[in-house]
Every structure is written in structure tokens, then in C-alpha cells.
Amino acid sequence: IYSGCCILGTNVCHELNKLQQAFATRNILAYCVASQWFGCYIGPSSWKDLWLIRGLAQHVAHTYTAKSMGLAESQWQMMEKFERVCELDVDRPPLIDGRIKDSTFGIRLLLWGVSELEVLKSHCVVHMMEQKIGSDIFVKVLQRLARGTSSNDGTDFIPGPKPLTVCTVTIFQQLKKVHTIDVTGFAEQWIYGFGCPRIRMGVSVNIKKSKLELAYRIESVSNHKGLQMTIRVFECEDVTNDHHIDMNEDQDVIELACKSRVRKVQKSKDGDDGGYGSELF
What we know:
By secondary structure, this protein is an alpha+beta fold. It contains eight helices and nine strands. The strands form four sheets. The protein has a three-stranded antiparallel β-sheet with strand order 3-4-7, with no helix packed on it. A hairpin with a 4-residue loop joins strand 3 (198-206) and strand 4. The radius of gyration is 23 Å and the shape is globular. The protein starts with 21 loop residues before the first helix and ends with a strand.
């Protein structure tokens, strides 16, 4: 592995006479450069771990998109990916099917290729993992995997540096060491399970109790038992509060405690408060 520099123009993938091609071209080029690290330098431990390599490469490219094109553009792209995954993930196999052997999975991959759902869902799952545990902890886990994960595929007799690999089980073991959140349910739902839930929500503020009242209803998913969700509440004075919810029912109402106190907005001389009333968030 040698260090280098890639200088690429936006006309590599599209012609110059095409309009609005910069965003799509930069995403493609960023993914190709990230694949040199997650894909060439660091590979999967088995065929079933290929989704993780693909998702990590897309995650690195998405980080570049947020830095170069702005947070709004990166969030818009992720929203489009999530909506597309919800449309495609209907009666489709999961990312890792425990009923299929690894050799059979590799043969099927070589014959049929990678579907659009597998490409998009792998990135969505890695993105949700980062949001669930935090970007700082997620970066530490990736750095630990990149430094100390070596191959165990019987290549010890090959002279020189051993190839680095990542495994789905290994990365979840690392997550358990650095974070207290149980990620077993997350893996069963999004990696070993199938189907995407559609959740309708409504929220209201109970000023007397200083709590949020959250009502939800789960739609269009069959295996939602044990579904977990992390709700991050942004309160005043830069206070954030994370709530981890187990959605075991089809619909329910949950109360979330708030740390910030309700404060009254002072009215002007003409009695107008600017339409704010009581400020909490």
C-alpha cells in the first residue's frame, strides 16, 4: 500500500454539457476513493461480511459529502436512500441470511450480482449504527478495527504483511465494549431480519409535568416485535437528551422526561409575545 493523491474532475463520469452533474459525480468519485480503503486495503472476513465493507465505504464517502456540499445536501441524500429502501425491502432476503452457507452466498453473489437494495441498505444500516452510538465512538471503533484486525483465513504462510479484514460479529463485539447500549436487537432487526417499518408519530408538550407525550403507530412491517428506537430531544441551552424506546406494541403513548424548565417569554408593551408562549425547545 503506497500513499498517493487523486486529482479528478467532475467531467470524468459525465459530459460537460450536462446540467447538475457535480453532486452525482462527486458522490461516485468519493465512493471509489473510499473503496480503496474499505474494499482493497481492508476486506471482508467472509462473503456474508461484504455488506459491511460496502456500507463503510459509502459512509466515508457520505462524510465527505457533508463536509464539501453541506449538511443539508447529505441529509437529503440519506432521506432519499431510506425512502428507496422502504420501497424495495418487501419480502426480500436480509443482508445476512443465516440459512445460507457462506460458500453458497458467494456463488449466488457471483452469478446474480449485488442488488440495489443491498447497496442502499448497507449504507443505511451503517448510518443508523453511527447515529445510535454517536459519531465519536463510532470513529474509535473503526480506528481500532483498522489497526488490529487481521485475517484468519489460513494465509499465515504468506510472507509479508497479512491482509486486514472486518467481520460483522467483531464490530458488534467492539461496540459492546465501548458503549452500554444493547445492539443485539438492532442487529436482529436490520442485518439478520427483513422489512422496514413505517412509523407515524405525534408529539405534544405537557407543560405541567415538563414532559413530552409521544404517540406512535407502526405500519407495514411484520417482524416489529422488539423494535428499538433512539429519540434525541434538543432542548434549550444546547441540552440534548437521548431516550431509548422498545416498541413492543403496534401503537402506544410514551412520556419522555425533559431536563429543561419551561420559561415564559416576556410580552412586549402591546401584549404580543411573538407567537412563542412558553419556550421549552
